[in-house]
Amino acid sequence: MFGVLFPxxxxxxxxxxxxxxxxxxxxxxxxxxxxxxxxxxxxxxxxLLNNFTLPPDKALAVxxxxxxxxxxxxxxxxxxxxxxxxxxxxxxxxxxxxxxQLTAAGSTPLSAKIGVSxxxxxxxxxxxxxxxxRVERMALKVGENLFNFMQSFCGVDGNKLVVPMDIMDRWFxxxxxxxxxxxEYLKGFTL
Length: 191
What we know:
- The protein is an alpha+beta fold.
- It has 3 helices and 11 strands; from the N terminus they run ββββαβββββαββα.
- 17% of the residues are buried.
- The model is unreliable at 97-108 (pLDDT under 50).
C-alpha cells in the first residue's frame, strides 16, 4: 500500500511497521522507532507502492502528534503525486487543550505518533504545506527586515510612522547589496 522512510535515519519501512487502527487509518508509535528523541526526526518520505493505487479523489494524508497534543496535518500523497518528503514540525509536547494526560505508575508513557489516513482529497488543505510554510516564514522575515529598516528613518505622528518617500527604494537597494556581498545573507530568510 505505502511505505515511509526517515531521511538519514532509517531504511524504507512498509505498512507493517504501523499499527492499523481501522480500514483507513494507521499509526506509527515513535517510541518503538526512536524513543523520546522523536523531535530529532525532522522529515518523512512517504510513497505509494507500485501495487497500490488510490482513487483520483483520495489522498494518503500524514499527521504528527507529540505526547499530549492533537494531531497536526503535514501533507499528503496522491496518484498524481505518489511520493513526498514532508517536514515534521513537532508541536510542543502537551500543547493541546491544556489537559494533562497522566499515566499510571508502571504503564507505558505517552509517546509521539505519526498517523496516516486515506481521506477525500477535497477535504485536505494544500498538498504543499511545507512550501506554503516556508514562503510564509520567509515573507515574515523579509517584512520584519523592512520594518526594522523603516524604523531607523521614521518619525512618529500619533499612532503613525512617518517615513521618507523613497524608503522602499533605499531598503531594496541595501537588501540587494547585502545579498551580492554575502551569498549566505538570503539563507537567513529561509527556514
